[in-house]
Backbone:
């Protein structure tokens, strides 16, 4: 599933997420993230001596990782506005489809002409229902059970898949948490039951998600705000690790950006991993399947555009869960604290706005010509290839400590050092070979190609399906700047050497 008053993914696949720029920092809610690498670096586990003077880390050193310690007026204003209006932004897009056939301009024109009022639009929207609350409670509870009570076994018979218990990245305080990686298994179990119900058991209609879509919006908002509030209170009363908490003294900023770095209940329930990956991203493909079922019910067929959206976004979701262990090294886990932007963003922003293409196609079925369908498919697949291979090269480089082959030759890299908050010095390598030598964030470029393919599958009849590519472009361009600001603080002059070697961010020769 917002960063810099622009809404974000770590399209996270991914998390999935919501990102909003606030001052020097962003909010990221999902997905995560999209699954986007923090930097082209391999971090060794080697630790050297503490700071020379024997003292603890300074505020300046601690502030290099995670969110800001101080809040300026622009950041505070952005935070307050987002807390107040972000839920209504989501409601506006969903309401536009429900009442105005997915037109994003007609509601505004009706308000301007006096044909509608905010009250009349609100009154026409479906309200909270206990049926939707029951559906959502069962859904979240089921995902909790799969996450906590069903240890991963898929890694034992799927070659190349890394599941089970895995180490996360080093936290700013110098800790390394362990995670239970079983997202792929949870996705497989969930979708097996979904298809078994659709074709055999018939416990519920495959259109159940679409039929309760706006009531479910209220339920997801309740959970999003509830988990964000709980994490906020927990940070003050019983934090998981005091050394990895950040307090600014500003209530609104702490609530939105989060205080705890890795809030947990017990040994294994990690708030970040659960809410970034489950229940939002597991639901992503189910939501699209429900849209396809509704299209079949209404029109007697599923269009090739709906198939393309399901296939291309399904590839993205499966990629996320296949590489869930790698996700532990991304910006969501490595740098973001858990607050409203992750808690609410993963519960609401990701499932409702990342699925706008499928929702649009229910109201406006599009049958693409063969050549257009093939073009959209190729764009999506090439984008995925660039996205995945760029991240694969980084992961291979990290796992082998540079002792590997990239594009037929040993990779080149720049040696650099950094310090964690406990004063320990660490060593990293910034790769300048392969895709990482072409541009500093070519994985984002592939991500944008895939995002454009989702939108183009919907034709050119309305603006609403293209919200996604506009949002992702703003998000990832800003994320480039955000990542590099953090890396500049972390690596100093070594980062300058890297940017001299790889001068372009997204498009070689252009940007």
Residues:
């Amino acid at each position: 599933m917002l960063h810099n008053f622009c809404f974000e993914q770590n399209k996270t696949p991914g998390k999935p997420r919501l990102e909003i720029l606030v001052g020097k920092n962003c909010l990221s809610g999902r997905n995560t993230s999209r699954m986007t690498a923090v930097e082209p670096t391999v971090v060794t586990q080697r630790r050297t001596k503490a700071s020379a003077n024997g003292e603890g880390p300074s505020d300046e050193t601690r502030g290099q990782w995670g969110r800001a310690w101080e809040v300026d007026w622009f950041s505070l204003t952005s935070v307050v506005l987002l807390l107040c209006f972000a839920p209504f932004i989501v409601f506006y897009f969903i309401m536009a489809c429900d009442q105005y056939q997915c037109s994003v301009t007609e509601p505004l024109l009706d308000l301007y002409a006096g044909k509608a009022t905010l009250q009349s639009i609100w009154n026409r929207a479906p309200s909270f229902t206990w049926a939707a609350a029951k559906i959502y409670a069962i859904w979240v509870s089921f995902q909790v059970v799969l996450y906590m009570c069903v240890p991963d076994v898929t890694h034992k018979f799927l070659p190349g898949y890394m599941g089970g218990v895995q180490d996360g990245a080093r936290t700013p305080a110098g800790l390394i948490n362990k995670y239970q990686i079983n997202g792929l298994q949870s996705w497989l179990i969930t979708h097996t039951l979904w298809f078994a119900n659709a074709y055999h058991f018939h416990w519920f209609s495959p259109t159940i998600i679409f039929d309760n879509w706006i009531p479910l919006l209220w339920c997801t908002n309740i959970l999003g705000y509830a988990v964000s509030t709980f994490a906020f209170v927990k940070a003050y009363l019983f934090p998981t690790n005091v050394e990895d908490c950040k307090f600014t003294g500003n209530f609104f900023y702490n609530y939105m950006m989060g205080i705890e770095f890795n809030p947990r209940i017990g040994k294994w329930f990690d708030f970040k991993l659960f809410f970034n990956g489950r229940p939002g991203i597991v639901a992503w493909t189910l939501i699209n399947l429900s849209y396809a079922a509704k299209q079949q019910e209404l029109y007697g067929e599923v269009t090739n555009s709906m198939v393309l959206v399901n296939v291309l976004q399904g590839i993205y979701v499966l990629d996320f869960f296949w590489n869930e262990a790698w996700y532990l090294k991304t910006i969501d886990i490595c740098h973001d604290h858990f607050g409203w932007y992750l808690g609410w963003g993963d519960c609401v922003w990701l499932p409702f706005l990342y699925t706008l293409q499928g929702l649009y196609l229910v109201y406006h079925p599009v049958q693409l010509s063969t050549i257009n369908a093939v073009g959209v498919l190729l764009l999506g697949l090439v984008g995925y290839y660039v996205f995945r291979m760029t991240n694969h090269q980084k992961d291979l480089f990290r796992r082998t400590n540079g002792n590997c082959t990239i594009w037929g030759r040993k990779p080149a890299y720049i040696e650099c050092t950094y310090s964690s908050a406990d004063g320990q010095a660490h060593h990293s390598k910034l790769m300048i070979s392969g895709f990482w030598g072409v541009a500093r964030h070519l994985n984002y470029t592939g991500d944008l190609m895939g995002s454009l393919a989702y939108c183009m599958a919907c034709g050119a009849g309305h603006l609403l399906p293209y919200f996604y590519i506009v949002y992702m472009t703003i998000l990832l361009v800003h994320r480039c700047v955000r990542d590099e600001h953090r890396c500049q603080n972390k690596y100093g002059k070594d980062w300058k050497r890297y940017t001299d070697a790889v001068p372009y961010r997204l498009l070689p020769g252009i940007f």
